[in-house]
Design brief:
The complex is a heterodimer of chains A (about 325) and B (about 325). Chain A is mainly α. Chain A is about 45% helix and about 0% strand. Classes of the chains: A mainly alpha (about 325), B mainly alpha (about 325). The structure holds zinc ion. Chain A: This is Geranylgeranyl transferase type-2 subunit beta.
Amino acid sequence: MATPIKDVVLDENRPKTLLAEKHADFIIKLFHSEDNYEFAITDYLRMSGMYWGLTALDLLHKRDKLLRVDLFDFIKSCQDPESGGISASLNHDPHLLHTLSAVQILCMYDKIDILDIEGVVKYVASLQQPDGSFSGDKWGEIDTRFSFCAVATLSLLKRMDSIDVDKAVKFIETCKNFDGGFGSRPLSESHAGLIYCCLGFLSITNRLDIVDRDTLAWWLCERQLPSGGLNGRPEKLPDVCYSWWVLSSLKLLGRLHWISSTDLENFIMACQDGETGGISDRPGDVADPYHTLFGLAALSLLGYSNIKMVNPTYCMPQEVIDRLGLKPQVLA
Amino acid sequence: MSDSSDEEISQQKWVFYKDRPDWKDVEPIPQDDGEEPVVTIAYSKEFTDVYDYFRGILKTQEKSERALQLTKDAANLNPANYTVWQYRRDIIKALKKDLREELEYIRQTIRKHSKNYQVWHHRKVLVEWLNDGSEELEFTKSILETDDKNYHAWQHRQWAMKTFKLYEGELDYVDSLLQTDIRNNSAWNQRYFVVNNTTGFTDVVLSNEIDYTLNKINIAKENESAWNYLRGLLLHDKEGLSKNQKVVKFCEDLYNSGNRSAFLLALLVDMCDEEITQGSGDVLLARQKGIDLCKELASNYDTIRCKYWEYMANTLEKKGTGTDEACTSSTAN
Ligand SMILES: [Zn+2]
């Protein structure tokens, strides 16, 4: 009984080379649009949105096109003086996701000192739970994503000493599944995005030894579909952001070469918008900064020469990680 | 239908908050913190109006009926705005609102935005406040009817089951999902979740689960989820991966019948690998068999992952010849 595989078919007339200039224009346009209304309605995810856009530009060697002083004023104003956490934008509550995004942006621009760093450290530490896990904000939602955000933030600030790392590792270990993957909580289904979070976490804490390396790497390889794209779970459609999460995970496991890089490259190229620039989740869909960043980052890991080298743990330019003297674990 | 109350709202003529006499006392606060729009979403004037007033009440910390209604409009326009939900909960607490009513409201909202983190979290908080999870199985089931792999729904269901001990009947439910879609990886995972949290993988349970899984593999032999579940089961077999006679015979019969599913061959490779490592049986034969299988996979049955199969062939080649230490580093690129 043969069931057709859930996948997409790449069009003959698809883009086949990197449209770097167009992608840079796409991002810059988003940042410079005079249409204030668009700006107003995306405020709930602005900090992360800025991280996606600015990192994408940086990977394209175009960082200087967006050097704006008000960017730093804005980030500074999003830090909550009481908790120390950083919000998506003004009039929002602080959240761990946006706290990490802000710290990532400021590290890229070497401007971390504008923050109340002790405040950030205190905020992140306050979110650790008795079982070692982290909640995303004061409302207490627990998810392995937040474990990653916590250690990524603290390691960029060189303040890993402020949390109980062993307990945090133990929690991640309880989220390891029978197929070698990781989910959002203990016994939750394996999911490529959460696998990336857990491996990124273990890379930062130098504990990749707890992973069933080849079992997990094989599961990750299985995510590649005939179109070349990667999905996030069995029987799901391929998606550029999952391509990054699977690929960076394989990189951390030292098994990047197990998938077909040519096929994946073809798939990502096909997700470019030849007119507006930018990259979408699948061929023909609307481009956005999120998939643009992860598409470019995946191409960087594949060794694409016109894109800066990306660090697989932090999804930031490798040169920034080097400048900070960080050496997250990567298995050979 | 069931979502009628919200449809009524959208059918009524929309009046901007700025034109409502009973909102005259609130000062709207426009968004003015820069000019970099980051993500494009279709814009509406209604949106700006509602959010200007939302910022207005947020600033004065007004907790009233009208403020509650305003958060509903704001959440409708953008359910991903986490601040709106947090403030809505603040109001609910302050006004001591009927939590059952709120539960019904969030049920309708989740039906419309079932892939949104915030709406699910709102429901979880309400269920915690009520300390009653009796509606959660039916509710998540209704969401899974339209999307049987919805990660949020599964996560919420598992949370409720664990918190309120609601495991009864779950394996039957999982079975019914697998009858509809035998490849539903979420359902296979749920099977593991239930067994693990109830009986555990005792010898009897393990044997039954293996029978169940082999039956499912017989129906669809290219089903990654079922093969992965089988491997998960064998982790609980004290003898290891390669000694369960039922599984070994099943795999050999399947192979001899001409089946070349990549998942079957992959399991056979791992069985050979384990035999070599344990030094049990004819190691040389197992090694040759394993290497041949890897070559078949690399060149015919799973060519997209040929690098993986070459690596496995290489690993087997070196195993048992005293150089197994070297094999991990030599193939990394
Ligand atoms: Zn995506």
